[in-house]
Structure formats: structure tokens, C-alpha cells
Automatic annotation (TrEMBL):
Record organism: Tolypothrix tenuis PCC 7101
Domain called Beta-lactamase class A catalytic: residue spans: 170-317
Molecular function terms from GO: beta-lactamase activity
Any Pfam family matching the protein: Beta-lactamase2
Domain of life, per lineage: Bacteria
GO BP annotations, alphabetical order: beta-lactam antibiotic catabolic process; response to antibiotic
The organism's taxonomic lineage, starting at the top: Bacteria, Bacillati, Cyanobacteriota, Cyanophyceae, Nostocales
Cited Gene3D superfamilies: DD-peptidase/beta-lactamase superfamily
Protein name stated in the entry: Beta-lactamase class A catalytic domain-containing protein
Amino acid sequence: MMPPEIPNFPPTSIVLPVVNQAVLLSKPTFQTQSNNSDLTYNVSKPTIFKESEKLQSTINEIIKILTSQRLPKNKFSITILDVNKREIAGYQQKQPRFPASVAKMFWMVYSYSQINNGIWLESKFDKLLISMIKQSDNNAASDIIDLVTHTQSTQNVGNIYYENWLEKRNIMNKFFQQAGYEKINISQKTFPITHKKMYEPQGFDLKMRGNPKYSIKNTITTQQAARLLYEIYTGQAISPAYSKKMANLLSIEPTTRIEKKDQQDSNDFNPVHGYFSESLPIDVYVGAKGGWTSSSRQEAAYIATKDGKTAYILVVFAEDRAYALDEKIFPKIAQLVFQRMTNRR
């Protein structure tokens, strides 16, 4: 039996316009007079959401599940955001945590900001963005970071060069921090980067991490990740047209969900098995970016029913090896949240 057909874009009350390709193609490849440090994110302040006791009761249920399964709560953060009602709840949702590949959502938004400002021709990024978001490819992510920050991963060649390099690499942090993403750090690349034969940080990428014992890593809160998804899926991030493009990049198609649900090949990126969409009905829209390392598991997702009456954002960051090894906990959390959200219309 074939699964029910669902739209490519989530059903919400927001109708995003079709991108005018002619306008995009008229932009120059690169304008050397443009100053990346002058770019500012167009959403200067976060939307205010009302705290919800009902949503918080769902959070409390999840924390009880973690306790029953002896999973560490102190390493766990979660945010639930009801898009239609503009309500929010969470647990340690303002605690900065390592996002792994969830950081790629932010790199995507920054890339489109430069494209929108005429710094780059969009076609230069099309394949790279597909690889970075759809396949979570670190090589593509590395190339994108090099392009948008005008830096290269290289060996240490002296402090005078390093300080200039570091200032450029940190431009992405400044871009979001000025818009209220407090203390966010997304300046570190994800490894391994196989096409550069860099299997771990080296050179300037290593130096910027500081003391190896207390290495500086990317840090994002689940609330910040939820905010970014909200801004993308309500057409606010960069522009309505680019928001739609980003949402489509994040979309996990029904065919992918069917093919990947039971696939357990660790050498192949799998956005489904061990993640939220594994346990959700096939006709429910899911747009998500997952992360995984040997000591952590993360996911940020926009989830909506076909009629749009239920639309919410679920973000979980879990910084412990127990979560990395547990392929059932994220689907279990997603299933519980979906049941509670569809019952509260």
C-alpha cells in the first residue's frame, strides 16, 4: 500500500511566494567591495512565546522517561514550541550545548544572507547546500564556511595571520549574536573533512579551540535552534523566498523516511533511524536537521500535520554517550510529543 501523498512544503497559514529565478541569476558572482562584517540578520529580535503549562506537562513526562531509563538528565535539553498558539516549554533550554551537525542550519541561513545581499551567485551554493543539509556532508560544510568567511583551514603560520583569520571566522557568531542569539558559537567546523584529509582539527582550526583539556566547541541552546526553525518556517529568515528554499532543504521526504527507517549502516548518513521521524506517521510533514557523534545525539525539527492544525517545533540536545548509543529514545520522545500535540488542538 502506497503512503498518502503529502506536500513538499509544510501546511501552515503562511503562504510563501515562488522564487523569482530571473532576479537571483542577475546577481554578481562576488562583490569585493561588500563587507561581510556589515551583514545583519533581518530578524533583529526573537518572537515572544507564552509559557504553557500543558506543554510543560509533556516535558515533565519526557523527563520521567529519562529517569526510568537511567539516562542522564543533566546532559539533556529540550524545547517544544507550538507554532499555531505561539506557546513554549522546555527543560534546560537556555543551557548552551554542543549541537554537532545542527549547526549546519545556521551556516545555511548565513549563506543565504550573503546571497541575498549580492555577495554570491546562488548557483555557487546550490550543490553545496544540498550536500550539507540533505547528506550532512562535512566536506560541503567546510567549503561553505571557507567561502562565506573568506578563510581556509590551514596550518598555523603565525599569530598576525591567525588573529585576522579568527576575526573572519567569527563573523558568523557576530551575525547571530547581534540579532539576540546570545553567546552562540558556530565558528567551528565539523570533522572529519575527508577531501582535505583532515580527520580532526589542525592548524588554525585546532588553535581556535584553545586548551585541549577544555576545548572550545560550537554551542547553541535548544531554544535558539527552535527560534531559527520558527523564523524559517514562518517565512522570516532572510526573506520569504529564501525561507521556503531552506525549509525545502530541511524536508525529509516520505520516500526517504520509508527507505531509511530500518537502515542501520553507520557509514551512511541517516536522518530517520534513531531520530524523530522514525516514529511519526508517514503523512506528517517533518523538516529536520540531526546531529550525532560518539558521545552525543541532537535534532531540531519542524513537524506539522497535513491539515496544518498541528504545527510545532521539537528540539533535543543530549550530550552524553548514553544518548549516542540509544537509537530508541529520540523516536520515543517524538511519538509522545506528537500524541500530546495532536490531542491539544
